[in-house]
Amino acid sequence: MPYRNMNIAELARHIGMDAREVKRLAEKGVLPGQMVGGEWRFNRAQMLDWLQRELHSLRPEQIRNLERAMSDVEDEALFGRLLGPEAVNMNLPARSRTSVLHELVALAEHTGMLYDKPALVRALEEREALGSTALAGGYAFPHPRRPMPYATAEPLACLARVPGGIPFGAPDGGLTYVFVLVCSHDERQHLQTLARLALLFGSALPQQLRDMDDALEVVALVIATERELLSKRR
Fold this sequence. Notes:
46% helix
């Protein structure tokens, strides 16, 4: 979909937020909008950047609404098809932010679904240059700034652990141990996956992953945690 401008009502529908809340946030200068002809207008590309950057600051209810707004299927399970054991490495040999990104891309290449390794590395580095994808709690979700349908055969996720942790720019100043690389093919899927990850990692999952080594068990735990999350909504 082209990155056109949206008004308050269109943006509210797009991200699953009440129109009054959109207006309030715009007036406070929180949302990247501008007044045009007496009406608020929001650039779609700027909103995509804002959502990726500020996802951690949204309330759980807002994240759930965003996730649902991005999905064509109510309460769709994602990680059964995005994450396989070949995309898991619980002993990632990385000691810096740059080496983590390169090792994650190497892990993506190991799945056999990566077409353009250099492009994905560049996209991840460019996204991190805008602000770290690390969150408080010891985990990070490295991802390209924009969907990359040409870079992979299918949308994919890779999960890795650096056992000793590394500084990755987390807002709490702590080390980051668990990394989930996300590479999507379209904007809706991109935001839905990031929102789902934010909800999943708001549980005991990050700490559990830090104590695990077996890739099959890791995938099973992520899928089980997602199923539990979805079952609570029904």
